[in-house]
Design goal:
The relative contact order is 0.19. The protein has about 80 residues and is mainly α. The N and C termini lie far apart (about 45 Å). It has one domain. It has five helices and no strands.
Length: about 80
């Protein structure tokens, strides 16, 4: 199977929105945008190791994890 890792980066806003919907939590637009940015950076770092979204999907819900990390970080700063 020929996988284009650039598609992973194009899919980030959709994946974050889906994760927020499944979580049944209300995230602010700022939290969602920050989670997108965090996820983009994590995937860019992972790409250097040949790892894509598909690799994470088998073991962790990375978009939801990013949302939760951003929310927790915001609560820690409050």
């Amino acid at each position: 199977m020929n996988h284009d890792p650039d598609l992973d980066l194009d899919d980030i806003p959709t994946r974050i929105a889906q994760a927020a919907a499944v979580a049944r939590a209300t995230y602010t637009p700022y939290e969602e945008a920050s989670a997108c940015s965090l996820l983009r950076d994590l995937l860019a770092a992972a790409r250097q190791h040949g790892v894509t979204f598909a690799h994470f999907d088998g073991s962790i819900d990375l978009p939801r994890t990013c949302l939760e990390v951003i929310r927790q970080h915001g609560e820690d700063d409050a």
